[in-house]
Structures are given as C-alpha cells and as structure tokens.
Amino acid sequence: MLGLAAKDIVVRFGEVEALKSIDLDVPTGSFLTLLGPSGCGKTTLLNVISGFLKPTEGRVFIDAKDVTEMPPEQRDTALCFQSYALFPHLSVEENLVFGLRQQGMPPSERAERLRDVVQQLDLGAHLAKLPNQLSGGQQQRVSLGRALTVRPSVILFDEPLSNLDAKLRESVRHEIRSIQQKFGLTAVYVTHDQNEALAMSDKIFVLNEGQLEQAGTPEDLYHRPRTRFVADFVGSANVMQARVIAQPDASMWQVETPLGQLMVRSDTAPVADTVLIAWRAEAAVMGMGPANIVTTQVGRRSFEGAYTDLFFDADGETFRVQQTRTTLVAGDEMSFHILPDNIVFLSDTVSQVAS
Amino acid sequence: MIRPSPWLITLLLLPGIGLIVVFIGAVIYIAIAQSIGFYNLSGESGFTLESWDKLLARKSYWTAVRYSLFIGFWAAVLSVAAAYPIALWLRKPFKGSLTVSALLKAPLMIHGIVAAFLFLNIISFNGIVNQFMIWTGLFDAPRRLQNDSGAWGLLFLQVWKNMPFALLLLTGAVQSISQDTLNAAQDLGAGAIERFRRVIAPLTVSAMQAALIIIFIDALADFTFQTTVGPTNRQSLAQYMDFFRSRGRWNEAAGVGVTLMALSLAGAIVLAVTARLIFRKRPIGRVLAWYEIRNKEARS
After folding, report:
1. Cβ contact, residue pair A81, B180, below 8 Å
2. What does the pLDDT look like over A239-255, one tens digit per residue?
3. Chain B closest CA to A47's CA: distance in Å?
C-alpha cells in the first residue's frame, strides 16, 4: 500500500517552473530520499507534500486520501526542519507534546507517548531545559522527537543534519533510520548529501532543475546511473564520450573512447552511435585483466584517508581511479582494467550534454 | 573574565539612573507631600489627610476613576488587538508593504487635538458619517454622534491614535519569529488562533507588554480627546484634576494627580503581569507532574 503518492505535480512561480510534472510513490513504511543540488526543487516538493505550498497542478495522496486542498495543520504529516524550528519559549517537554496537545490527547496518554519518545531518544535529562540550553545534536533529537510523538502517517525531513558536524551527522542519521524502521514510518527525506541518501534510503529520487532525473534503490543509482547528471552527482563517476564500433553479442558492445577501445556489457542498447559512458573510480582494478586494460601515467595523487585518488589525463580529459592502498605517486606508470559490467551507457546524447 | 567592581558599575550607571531617580523621586515626593497638605500652594502647609477624606468621599471622584480605567484599559487592549493582525500581515514584505506601513503610522505624526477636531468634523450633525448613514437608509435623519455617552467615539479615536504605536512595537517583535517556527506549529496541528495563542503571543509578549503599558498610561491620563469628543456626563481623572485646579483647590487637584500616578503604576503592572501570565505561563506544574510519574516508575 502507498503511504504517500504525488501525481503530476507542477509548481510554477510566475514564469519559473520549479517542479515539472513529478510523480512520486512511497510505499507505507519505506524511506524515500529526494536528492539533488540546491535549487533543484526538492524542498519545494516537500512543501507541497506537507501542505505549505499548493501545487499549480497535480494531486497529493496520503494513505490513499487526496489531501491536496488540505491545510498543513490538518495533514497527517510531521516535518523535521533544517533549522530544528523548536519553540524557543517552551521547555523540551512542552516542545515534545506540542502536537499531542493540539490533538487534544488526554494527559495520561500524552505522558505515555512522551515517555516512549524520551526513552527512545534519551532526552530524560533535558526535559525541563529550554532549546537554547541544548547542543545542536540534542536540539535535532528534540525536533525528531516532536515529530515522532504525533505518530504521523508520513514523516518529512528537510535536510535535518546539515547543521551538525560530520561525526554527529553520521550517528544521528543511523538513529533516524533505526527509529523510522522501528515505528514503520513512511519517511521522505530531503538532502543534497549523496552519502546520506545512499546510507539511509530504501529509494532515492534524484531531482535536477525541477525534473526527476532517476528513481531507484541506492545500489541502482550508484551502479546503473542513467544520465550524466546522476552519474556525476551520485558518487562522481568518470564520464566520457564513446563511439559504438561493434556488438559482439546481444549484451556486449565495443566502443572507442579516449582510453582506447573498451567492452561494455549492457542489457539496454546505446541511444545513439556516439554516446556517453560512465564508470566508477573504484571499479578500476590494478593490474592486467581479461578486457578493458588501460595503461597510463599518474598525473596527481590525493590521499583521502580511507582511499587514495589517482588522477590521469587522456585525450584532454581528466579521469580518476580510486585505490584503498597504493604506493603510486605522480609520474608513475599504472595499468588497470575495468570489467565490462562496471561500465554503463548513459541515456543523454552527446548533443544534449553539450547544450 | 575579570568582574568589574560594584563601585565602578554604580559610578558608570550614575549619570543615567541617578538623574532618573532624582527627577522621578522629586516629583513623587512633591506629589505625595502635597496630596497630604505639605507645600500647600493656596494656604498654610501642614500634615493632613483631610483633603484625601474629602476627595475619597466624592461620588464624582470614583466615577472619574472607573471611567479613566475603562478608557485606559480598552484603549490599550483594542489598540494592541488591532495592531497584531496588521503586524502579522506586514511580517513578510510584499509590493507596496512599505507604503502601507508608512500610511498606517501616519496618526503618530498628527497631534491629538488636531485628530480630535478632524474626528469631530466627520461625526458632526452634517458630517460625512451622518450623510452616509442617511444614504444607506439606516438613519432617517441626522443624529447627534458627538460626545456620545458610551464613549465609543472617544475609544475609536484612542485606538486610531495609539494603534500605530502598538504596531511599531509589535512589527519588530513579530518579524523576529522565524517562519520555520510558525510552520512547525502549523505542521503540528495548530490553526491560526492556536498559532497566535501558543507561539506568536508568547514570543512577542515583551513588546505586547510595552505597548499595553504605554498606551494604558497615555489613555488613562487623557485630557485632549476627553474634552473634545468625550461624554459630557462623566469626567476623566485629568479633566477632574483640571476642574479642581481651575478653582484653586490645589489639595484636591494634587490628590487626583496622585491617584492618576498610582493607577498608572498599578494598572501598568496588572496589564503586564496578566499578559505574561496568559501567554507565557511556564509549565512548572506539568514538568513536576512528569518527574513524579518518572520517579514512581523508577521506584517500581
């Protein structure tokens, strides 16, 4: 069953079309992430779902009920804001039960609901404090708790971790995911951070300039990007132009590229004779292999901790390979191979990308 | 951090607070001393409560007290009530909002007596209001609207004159509330009234208190509007004081003056405390109740 659905959502601000016919299906209890750069329309879409923005066209359904005309206060959603948006004049306890009081819940039930959330988020020591007496991470937990106490059909997150430091961000994102799974909540999460999206989501919608670029599981998006934008935005892949020169078998294609002739295994045919192909930096396996062997010189080395980026130039373009441990330095010769399964055809034509 | 000595702090504050204490203190001392007979302007000075006895025994005194409190209270409450929706409307800038805001503040630049006579012209026997009411058919003939006994005209004038002042104070306060905070309240189920009651009013209560206090004190001591458009069957405290002064009865005038000051102070405190209690009540009781439940559970 669908917890949330949005059909043909169009949002126009005067001449500007912020969302261009977006369709969204979120099964009950799943975690969907809207991923994209600033200004791509992800927060606009979240505002349409929460009711703060009425779409120019299209309908929104929560638990199969059309809520398009319903104001935010009547929708069964709860939003976690980027700024936390805690009520500065209310204690943590009052913040947490704000929604329950609005629902007119009896005090005994309210106390029970509060106790559950306080235990879950470990907020017991902070109940009497005001928001300005809390750290960023604690405020984030209160914001999450405030949304959880009302047990909404759909919980919405608007870049909730962007104000936290890297270490805290990682722990809070695991916390959010485990709470979502524990309560079986339908969640929509907005972020521009691909790591967050990949780590947390059941499904990711990649938005670009108000349009849906690709939707799929994190693995799909990462390993089988369909457009140059997705390949580049999710994981920063190596993208290059390729000319199809032969098709040795039904799913194998031979292409001419700046790295020489490569074999690509794909279930779908390339969209034109000259297309774009993408491969991940970590797909490069050092040493000789059965196919797609590239021998080149390391141009630049960048140690990133868990891995090392090795950059090299070919045909005027810069490419990147990633190795967990390597002694190679700038100027060294290196040979690597890429398995044909790890190279994908992109659906944009070369002229589209150029324009 | 090095904490400065209390003597240094006192010395630094002295030019500001010292002057206030000296001037206000002198005024209060003279007013109180005069109200009990000292520094008598029209006779021999002496310690006496006789003038107070006489004053408090007068029915007209209590009528003036009740009437001035009525005008002060309603002028303050209605002005603030009228200013809030406008402040919320002007919270987010829109095309022409600056012009609207400036026009709304225009009454601040018009002197009270000018405004009173302007209003008198509008509601006069052959004024615009009467003509309009006859045109609508609600009045058969012109009616006397000036100096109405219910003081509606006076209250209208008070609100017209004081609302921009409340607006000035509230606009800044309302603008300081983030949109996310209001959206969060709405998202959690709060409609417009609940958002006002539980978020906007508590977060702007200091500005609300300031507006209530200043307008209350101003309207309580009103003389200009009362003598021009106020009811003729009742006197405000300021009018009452002037009544004694014009007859050379300085002790009674001083008594009314002290009453005015005492009521200003007491009324301002009551309004400020009430506003805070209504809108910014701390949930001490609920917090304690929660801890009690938690401790019981921990024990069991």
Report:
1. yes
2. 999 999 999 898 999 99
3. 10
Nearest to B80 by CA among B186, B195, B172, B216: B216
Q: Give the other-Cβ count within 10 Å of A51's Cβ.
A: 23
A75 CB neighbour count, 10 Å cutoff? 24
Task: Decide: helix, strand or coil at residue B146.
Answer: coil
Q: How confident is the model at residue B298 (pLDDT cuts 50, 70, 90)?
A: low
Dihedral through CA B219, CA B224, CA B225, CA B231, nearest 10?
100
- Quote the tokens at residue A201: 């989501």
Decide the pairing of beta strands A16-27 and A252-257: unpaired
Indicate the pTM of the whole model: 0.79
Measured distance CA(A115)–CA(A113) in Å, rounded: 5
CB A134 within 8 A of CB A126: yes
- Domains for chain A: give ranges and CATH numbers: 2-223 (3.40.50.300), 239-354 (2.40.50.100)
pLDDT digits (tens, 9 = 90+) for A270-327: 988 899 999 999 999 998 888 899 999 999 999 998 899 999 999 889 999 999 888 8
Cα distance from N-terminal residue to C-terminal residue, chain A: 41
Q: Are A324 and A306 in contact (CB under 8 A)?
A: yes
Q: Which two tokens stand for residue A215?
A: 């939707």
C-alpha span between A102 and A110 (Å, rounded):
11
3-state secondary structure of A263: strand
Hey, what domains does chain B have and what are their CATH numbers? 61-230+264-281 (1.10.3720.10)
Q: Which residue among A74, A89, A114 places its CB closest to the CB of B202? A: A89
Q: Does A102 contact B283 at a Cβ distance shorter than 8 Å?
A: no
- Token pair of B148, please? 């109405």
